[in-house]
Amino acid sequence: MSDDKSFKPSEPTDMQAPKPAGAALTNAQGDAVASNENSLTAGARGPVLLQDHHLLERMAHFNRERVPERVVHAKGSGAFGTFRVTRAIPELTVAKLFQQAGTECRMLARFSTVAGEKGYADTVRDPRGFALKVYTEDGNWDLVGNNTPVFFVRDPVKFQDFIHSQKRHPATGRRSATMMFDFWGLRPETVHQTLYIFGDRGIPRSYRFMNGYGSHTYSLWNAQGQRFYVKWHFHTQQGVQNLTEEEATEIAGINPDYAFQDLHDAIERGEYPKWRVSIQVMPEAEAETYHINPFDLTKVWPHADYPLMEIGEFELNENPRNYFAEIEQAAFEPSNMPRGFGASPDKMLQGRLMSYADAHRYRIGINYAALPVNRAASPVNTYNRDGQTRFDGNYGDAPVYEPNSFGGPVASGDAVQEPPIRIDGNADRYGWPQTDEDYYAQPGALYRLMSPDEQARTHGNFARNLGGTPAFVQERYLGHLDKIDPALGRGVREQIEQMKADPAPSIRTILSETHTYAAGGRLSA
Ligand code: HEM
């Protein structure tokens, strides 16, 4: 039943437990199977009979083994672990998790690449997903972030266009640098995140060696009804380590599941990866006057203004026993925010609050939250009933409506509630004000923080990908690089020229795309 408190995610159930050697093979109904070698036929050389239920069940189940892969972040690996609070923050939040230093809580992490499908290589240049689910006593808290502190776009209505530009070309079925740089060049708010991706951090050595970020502005609220805007940071204790494009290319050929294996094997060896958990905190009133719009996902909050406050750590110490049950069916959702946690007016975050649960209902089914890996460790008492694959007791004969006179659950009516959010203005489709249109200052600072070696590698990384796109796409994008820093634009141009002049271009030099969109929007060969 859903309110069984004794359950722990990943606890072996009968289906998970290894069977003793020689245990009787049965069909899905528990009937003993006489032969798993020979189908039932009419005569020694005759055709198969329809009454061979074992065979039919095997074929039919096999045809339905796949659920749709995630539309983004399809390839990911993960592990269970322990989230530990090192500093209590009751002054910021009523969340039970953060009331006492030393509190520990079971959790799940899933790391992923974004644009490729489930069979893609782990070492491609791409952001990495960094999704956490903490099974707190107040319910599940999910923080679904990336390994970069900013994102490409800042309005959810542009997310689908952005992702289409990263996925496969409609004619060729291949990923296309032209589509990517065309979109990025037309949307200058993307340049900050793009610089991260074409810098060294665009290919982490493996999931253990990268930081994670909530990226969005979230909030926390306390018992006095005060709200604080918060950015979440997860710093790897293994040290940030990256692969060069040459190393990544080689590994992709030898072991496309390299990051999967690295995480799994480290945990098996008892080398549990750890991350430090910190927050930046902005009192609610400051959000109105701070010189950067704190709800613009393409910008960071400088640490000089909002220093990091360390409040916890987590380690991953248990591999899943079954990848499909515990990682493929894991359903992370930014809307999982127990009491004391909250959202913010960040438009992208608002979009995500709807999108993930919707995706899970499609991908896994309406009862996804009751699956062991997604089930809260706290009691779950809803009036949701029935639906496909209701595999638990469906609340038995408990009341199915509220209010009722028969003892069903009632809303807590807590004295302490999330403080109201003040909203004013007319409903309209607002553009970003002029003051938010500085796309280049923060990427410029990021570029100038890079060592000369990293700058040189970044020039090459851009050049290899941008160099094969049509001239108008290239020129438009180089114009943005010039504005980030003239040395960046210059460095990338020089690299492109060198590659074009190379009489024997290396296999890594991607300099032409045969299929692309012409400027007029038609496909050209
Ligand atoms: C996965 C939508 C922005 C991080 C997904 C999925 C969807 C989605 C539909 C697949 C969910 C599933 O099938 O399980 C969106 C939309 C966005 C957005 C509509 C913007 C409006 C972001 C941003 C981040 C992010 C800004 C990071 C800061 C992730 C991660 C996953 C994911 C890490 C994989 C979660 C897992 O491991 O299962 N996103 N996304 N997304 N997204 Fe987003």
Automatic annotation (TrEMBL):
Domain Catalase core: 26-410
InterPro entries: Catalase (IPR018028), Catalase_3 (IPR040333), Catalase_AS (IPR024708), Catalase_clade1/3 (IPR024711), Catalase_core (IPR011614), Catalase_immune_responsive (IPR010582), Catalase_sf (IPR020835)
Molecular-function GO terms, alphabetical: catalase activity; heme binding; metal ion binding
PROSITE patterns: CATALASE_2, CATALASE_3
Tagged with keyword Oxidoreductase: yes
Similarity comment: family membership: Belongs to the catalase family.
Full protein name: Catalase
Organism in which the protein naturally occurs: Deinococcus metalli
